[in-house]
């Protein structure tokens, strides 16, 4: 079973690339982020025509998350995180499909830092951590998949110096991510590639793709009940190089 996290950076702009990916790779579940689409304009028909059911939590112009499943409709469990009732950002969607609990996550970027956007990012990580603890207590096979906007380690980035002042690499961001993982989650890509050097994102600016100047911010965290089924984890890097592609590549785990 192949479970994918894919920040599409605008589902309408990238729809041909997404459908292409679904048809060529035929993943079982795909968690999408950064839809930049309202609920009403989500391209459900195109997704269904490609053979996938979908649940989505949209927002016009930015954010937005979805869970797609091959041949079935995921069952929604929760949208949004508790803790800030005034938070209207569409960044969290939790579903049940194929016997798994799967959340699609689009964590705040946090730039510029310091400032209110960075403070929001840190609060959001804490709210996610609280929800993750509840999910772990259920002792179900659970995957938290998404764009975390956190570079966890120095070997997860092409240049520490280049990203030193970015919110993605601040000590507070990394500490929040570490606290989350330390609950008992397995960072699947890290587990399979312990020496780092695996990128999931390449900026559109400064020839980052051509220079392979990327970093790892898309993560799939596995609960103990599913971690022992981990066969493989990787990045479908070639899709980043296609015409009008997202700046993220599909990042995945394969389960026994």
Name the descriptors.
14 strands; globular; 27% helix; single chain; alpha+beta; 6-stranded mixed beta sheet; Deoxyribonuclease I, Chain A; 256 residues
Could you outline the blueprint of secondary structure elements for this entry?
Elements: E1 2-7, H1 15-25, E2 29-33, H2 44-49, E3 52-57, E4 65-70, E5 75-79, E6 92-97, E7 100-106, H3 116-138, E8 142-147, H4 160-163, H5 171-181, E9 186-187, H6 188-192, E10 201-202, H7 208-211, E11 214-215, E12 218-222, H8 224-227, E13 230-235, E14 251-255
Helix pairs in contact: 3-5
Briefly characterize the structure.
The longest helix has 23 residues.
Give your account of this protein's structure.
With 256 residues, the chain is of the alpha+beta class. It is built from eight helices and 14 strands. The mean pLDDT is 98. The radius of gyration is 17 Å and the shape is globular. The strands form three sheets. Strands 3-4-2-1-14-13 form a six-stranded mixed β-sheet. The relative contact order is 0.16. The chain has helices at residues 15-25, 44-49, 116-138, 160-163, 171-181, 188-192, 208-211, 224-227; strands at residues 2-7, 29-33, 52-57, 65-70, 75-79, 92-97, 100-106, 142-147, 186-187, 201-202, 214-215, 218-222, 230-235, 251-255. Helix content is 27%, strand content 27%.
């Amino acid at each position: 079973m192949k479970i994918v996290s894919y920040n599409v950076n605008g589902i309408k702009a990238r729809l041909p690339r997404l459908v292409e990916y679904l048809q060529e790779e035929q993943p079982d579940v795909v968690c999408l982020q950064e839809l930049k689409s309202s609920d009403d304009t989500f391209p459900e028909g195109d997704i269904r025509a490609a053979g996938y059911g979908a649940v989505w939590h949209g927002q016009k112009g930015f954010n937005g998350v979805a869970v797609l499943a091959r041949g079935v409709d995921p069952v929604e469990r929760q949208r949004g995180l508790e803790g800030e009732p005034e938070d209207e950002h569409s960044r969290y969607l939790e579903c049940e499909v194929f016997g798994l609990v799967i959340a699609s996550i689009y964590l705040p970027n946090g730039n510029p830092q310091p400032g209110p956007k960075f403070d929001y990012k840190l609060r959001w990580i804490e709210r996610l951590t609280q929800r993750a603890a509840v999910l772990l207590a259920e002792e179900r096979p659970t995957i938290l998949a998404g764009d975390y906007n956190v570079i966890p380690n120095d070997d997860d980035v092409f240049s520490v110096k280049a990203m030193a002042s970015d919110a993605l690499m601040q000590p507070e961001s990394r500490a929040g991510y570490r606290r989350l993982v330390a609950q008992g989650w397995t960072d699947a890509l890290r587990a399979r590639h312990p020496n780092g050097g695996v990128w999931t994102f390449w900026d559109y600016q400064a020839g980052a793709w051509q220079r392979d100047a990327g970093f790892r911010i898309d993560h799939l965290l596995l609960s103990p009940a599913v971690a022992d089924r981990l066969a493989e984890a990787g990045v479908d890097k070639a899709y980043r190089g296609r015409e009008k592609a997202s700046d993220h590549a599909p990042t995945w785990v394969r389960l026994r």
